[in-house]
Structure prediction request, 698 residues.
Amino acid sequence: MRATLIHGPRDIRLEDVPDPEVSRPSDALVRVVASCVCGSDLWPYRGVSPTRKPRRIGHEFVGTVEDVGADVTSVRVGDFVIAPFVISDGTCVHCRNGITTSCDNGEGWGSEDADGLVVDGGQGELVRVPLADGTLVATPEPPDADLVPALLALSDVMGTGHHAAVSAGVGRGSTVVVVGDGAVGLCGVLAARRLGADRVIAMSRHADRQAIAREFGATDIVEERGDEGVARIEDLLDGIGADSVLECVGTKESMQQAIDAARPGGRVGYVGVPAGGPKLPIQQLFGTNVGVAGGVAPVRAYLPELLAEVLDGTLRPGGVFDVELPLSEVAEAYAAMDERRAIKVLLRP
Amino acid sequence: MRATLIHGPRDIRLEDVPDPEVSRPSDALVRVVASCVCGSDLWPYRGVSPTRKPRRIGHEFVGTVEDVGADVTSVRVGDFVIAPFVISDGTCVHCRNGITTSCDNGEGWGSEDADGLVVDGGQGELVRVPLADGTLVATPEPPDADLVPALLALSDVMGTGHHAAVSAGVGRGSTVVVVGDGAVGLCGVLAARRLGADRVIAMSRHADRQAIAREFGATDIVEERGDEGVARIEDLLDGIGADSVLECVGTKESMQQAIDAARPGGRVGYVGVPAGGPKLPIQQLFGTNVGVAGGVAPVRAYLPELLAEVLDGTLRPGGVFDVELPLSEVAEAYAAMDERRAIKVLLRP
Prediction:
């Protein structure tokens, strides 16, 4: 089969690799229907995180089950499944607590397990899915083709935006600011409205992203950044900051922006992978009672709730995919996202 | 009248000063019935925070109203009142949000206001209380003398321990760790049990404090610190950390201890004034989804709820006062707390 490997900075290659197969009784084999490129895939792409040797990449995909191991009971051959961006067993204490990303037996896509067995990335034609019972969620029946983008969004960005909103304590009547207008930030807008927010201010300087933010329910757009951005937010919110701020970037500047945008007693929910060394200014947090929560989104735990609404058409995150390419153009998909020519690229094998 | 001034490190003096009086229409004049020394008073005492010139000190007291300004409507002459450790107007947006410590017109005890008018500290005989309507809470009738310590605890430590527990998300069935066995930590134990925690592990090495922790509802005591302490907590809690951790110290080490003691997805509620430069390890927080919230406790907002339970005898935080001294021995009160010969000293004028 063909699968995507990263060899180093800006070196993405689609290569022929051995077909994966069910190797353990808890595995499933999934034929990919659609996958995509994540903002976090851009870090090794940009060389921010090192690539020591060529490896599979990708961690967001949906597909159809082609085979299952003897122990698999929750998905069957022919099922359409969504794969969250972390593998989890669904049974350990952390999974039961809803923190599937801390699973005692968890693994990452595009790696090798303890025995040296390849764990496929999602940007390929076939994927061996370890711990299939814990990891995968099947739709009750094969979905309409036009639902695929929304279902694919559930593998990461929609669940991650939702995690930001939950971590920020968004509820009925909340005032919300979303820092970051990437796919996760846009999904954060959607999630905040879904949780009952009255006002959702999206911080964005890009007309195309502003348009999606509005479509997803943003009530206001703020283009300014830094102190000017905070002043603009206070203008919009009766002179104080927001009840909840969603930090969907992960840099030092974006985290400070998020903290500054929260009202005293407000909360920042952060899901931006902390790459640029975000600092948490403890004296400011202490003085203002602004809390900070979030982290690697346990999207598997949110999947049943969100999936039901995607299937009944009330939740529509598919709009984050503004470009669709065949898998053969995966290198262009990375380039388009890196150069911000695309918000998020959907890949079809 | 006599009032306590700090002149510099370890230089606490009871001095004769002019009697305060009602200077503004929103003032009340309160004769102190009891006051106390706060852990945070020890910082200027120890020279950790500088004392540039002699100033009044103290910010926890209860007393009887002797006079009120023309605009005061919520307390009357003769009322027994509790003064929270921050002055607040009760009407601004932050007070309405319950964050009275961020009051737009807030002031601190033992300072001077913008016009140079002295704001008395609590460790004296009389106190001019600015913004009396917002700041003070009166009991429905004069309390029994034996309730005074519990009522005095509401001016800071009980409300602060409660804020730690609320910020840490303590609820019915929670597992809780309390870092810090000072008066605030001990009140945190009481608060956590009151909010429904099943298990409350107090980290303490001192037999006298352990005894109060047990009396306040701690189910377990852990004497170890650092990694050993975390291992001991995990032994007690099914191999994982606690749902909620109350950080009641404020040093780098205590904050790290608190974060390490939380389970993935757990929450740290911190109220220890960040003196020693606590660090928030963002990568660890991100990876484990441990949230951090808290800050300067808005005890005024919690007073009505907690006061009702002190008055009906169901909430009994008075046990944090293990030493009682006359105001004339205020310098010894500081020394006793500094040398850890006392948990918390109650002063009677």
Q: What stands out?
A: The interface with chain B takes residues 93-94, 97-99, 101-102, 167, 238-240, 263-265, 267, 270, 273-274, 277-280, 282-283, 285-296, 298 of chain A (CB under 8 Å).
